[in-house]
Specification:
The complex is a heterodimer of chains A (about 190) and B (about 120).
Chain A (H helix, E strand, L loop, with lengths): L3 H14 L4 E9 L4 E8 L6 H4 L18 H10 L5 E6 L3 E8 L12 H11 L4 E8 L2 E6 H8 L7 H18 L6 H4 L3
Parallel strand pairs in A: 1-5
Antiparallel strand pairs in A: 1-2, 2-4, 3-4, 5-6
Helix pairs in contact in A: 1-3, 1-4, 4-6
Chain B lengths: L5 H19 L4 E6 L2 H6 L1 H15 L4 E6 L11 E5 L5 E3 L4 H13 L8 E4 L3
Parallel strand pairs in B: 1-2
Antiparallel strand pairs in B: 1-3, 3-4, 4-5
Helix pairs in contact in B: 3-4
The chains are: A alpha+beta (about 190), B alpha+beta (about 120).
């Protein structure tokens, strides 16, 4: 995975597989405190207690299509290589919280990447689900919530291509105003 | 005849449910971009973005875009399955943005299967 936005997409796909109806993604950038926190919380089926310690094992998966499950172990590796860590908290029937921490100024910390593309991909693929994205940088923040957007849209589907374009622009502008370093690959035509 | 497992029944139920929702949703085509870890690492997000951009450019309303997890053919990712209502699904492999645009224009809109990119015909 080249950047954190791809890790986020991958972890949220786990939430979708766990039949979550709502996923909240929170990123806290603290350049002064040299710390970055990524949290992904869902209201899915949760992970049984006896499986929780195995979820970061790359050779453990509950799927039958193949015998490896790399998503969480790759995120753990990304966190550990810049002196951070990964925690997974889950309650069966209630949901799961994945929390990764990173040393912000570490040379090996992966860039944020194209968050707008990740969120639009999730929304297009799962228009019935609700996604909330919260990005905090120092004392400022940006919040995007599909529940509010759906209320505004009324009968217009959230996965309509023109709405998707609007969402992409809204998130990109919001994060740019926060001062986030973004990979605007697709917008620049070079993702 | 091989013994049917509970997982097989669940899979069949999901497939029937999806086919039914395609008819009920008034959509003519369903395009599934496979978004397992392998697909994402291979560029599936770019492929989906290219598809949505092409739909916006063409003003298409009758195409349903969805995502799914890994189907176990990681070495051939990114994979995309195109299912035209009433026809067998076609799974395309090693997809990129240009191939996705070509599949969209010629298969999804034009009805012509792009055999040079196709991996399989039929359900996963």
């Amino acid at each position: 995975m080249q950047d954190l936005s791809l890790h986020i997409l991958d972890i949220v796909e786990n939430s979708i597989a766990a039949k979550a109806s709502r996923v909240e993604i929170r990123i806290e950038e603290d350049p002064e405190g040299n710390r970055m926190i990524l949290e992904i919380e869902d209201d899915g089926e949760g992970i049984p207690a006896h499986l929780l310690e195995k979820v970061v094992d790359p050779f453990f998966t509950t799927r039958s299509t193949r015998k490896i499950g790399l998503g969480l172990s790759l995120l753990e590796q990304a966190a550990q290589q810049c002196e951070g860590d990964l925690q997974v908290h889950s309650r069966e029937g209630e949901g799961t919280l994945v929390r990764a921490t990173f040393r912000y100024n570490h040379i090996d910390r992966k860039p944020l990447g194209d968050i707008a593309s990740t969120l639009t991909t999730l929304i297009v693929g799962n228009p019935d689900m609700d996604f909330k994205y919260v990005h905090i940088r120092s004392d400022d923040s940006f919040v995007f919530d599909t529940v509010e957007l759906k209320t505004e849209l009324g009968d217009i589907p959230i996965d309509h291509p023109k709405v998707v374009r609007f969402i992409r622009d809204e998130i990109t502008n919001g994060l740019t105003k926060l001062g986030c370093k973004l990979d605007l690959g697709l917008l620049a035509g070079e993702e | 005849m091989p013994k049917i497992k509970v997982e097989d029944l669940k899979r069949i139920k999901e497939e029937v449910k999806k086919a039914t929702s395609l008819r009920e949703g008034g959509k003519r085509v369903k395009v599934t971009v496979h978004m397992g870890t392998c697909g994402i690492a291979s560029g599936a997000r770019k492929v989906l973005n290219a598809l949505v951009s092409a739909m916006e450019e063409e003003g298409v309303q009758d195409v349903m875009v969805t995502t799914s997890g890994c189907i176990g053919i990681c070495s051939k990712e990114p994979l995309v399955t195109v299912e035209v209502l009433g026809e067998e699904p076609i799974t395309y492999c090693y997809m990129d943005e240009n191939k996705m645009r070509q599949v969209f224009k010629r298969h999804v809109l034009g009805g012509e299967i792009q055999r040079q990119f196709a991996l399989a015909k039929g359900l996963e």
